[in-house]
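Please, structure for the following, as tokens.
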Amino acid sequence: MSTTDLHGILVALITPFTDDGSAIDETRLHTHIEHMIQSGVHGLVPGGTTGEFTALTLPERNHLTDLCITSAAGRVPVIPGIGALSTRDCLSLATHAASAGAAALMLVPPFYDPVSLPQLRALCFEIHSSVSLPLLYYHIPSASGLHLTPVELAGLSDVGVRYLKDTSGDAPAFTELLHAYPEQITAFNGWDTLTFYGLAAGAKGSVWGTTNLLPELSVRLWDALKQGDLVEARKLWKKIWPVCRFLEAHHYTGAVKTGMELLGQGTGGVRKPFGLLVGEEREELRGLLEGAGLRTVR
């Protein structure tokens, strides 16, 4: 699939596990991907924050990439996360993903000791030179410790970065990227509660974890905004936004997987030390999902 096709709702996939959490559950993953594709999503982004990449071994990450590409079967592009704490591991993940058929590669920079901008540029250049796939840079300063300006982000196009997932939460900076540098970098929204704004402002898509729970509503929102139907888009956003706000206020992956369990989809939970939501928090999420028109299980 052509990498120029990256657009629309790109779901930041969860990684479902077996009930004991010891392995990726291939059946659950395939079923979930089928649901996403049948709901109309435009791409899959496995192995990111929502996919618990920090809790996966390198072999598991490669296996996850293989499973997603096999399940997608060319119907939508797959953009695996390849971020790691060393250039060696990034290159290993990138090489495997490229050989498996990835459309592009999502790169979060090393996130314990922040890299400098020159070091980041060198990392991007080395990966891109090795695999010749476009990079989607995951801009998440709260986790990486590296906050880049719009002009610095756009400048990454010199070293193989074609796309950006912006999870800075900085709407003015994101607006500058959309309107001042569209020829250099394609910016996708990556901050859930800013999705309506980002798409309405002209973003060509969103890398979105909430879509695991609300795929149909996510795609309908994209379609409405693309068609310029603000009235319909606002109606949809009124249902979606409370869920987005809730997810951002809790451990994100744990909340998303709790929502899936409430919808009757087994996930195997999140890997320790994290866990699913319980008690009042779980019931609050149930109410929000039902308020969005979904049926939950008891």
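The two ends are 41 Å apart (CA to CA). The chain has a mean pLDDT of 97.
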